[in-house]
Amino acid sequence: MRTPGKQKLRDAVYGLYERRLMRSLSPDRIPRHIGVIIDGNRRWARQVGDPVSRGHEAGANKISEFLEWCDDVGVKVVTVWMLSTDNLTRPADELEPLLRIIEQTVEELTAIGRWRIHPVGALDLLPGSTAEVLKAAETATHDNDGLFVNVAVGYGGRRELADAVRSLLLEEAAKGMSIEELADRVDVEHIARHLYTKGQPDPDLVIRTSGEQRLGGFLLWQSALSEFYFCEALWPDFRHVDFLRAIRSYAQRERRFGT
Question: What does this protein do (predicted)?
Answer without folding.
Answer: Catalyzes the condensation of isopentenyl diphosphate (IPP) with allylic pyrophosphates generating different type of terpenoids.
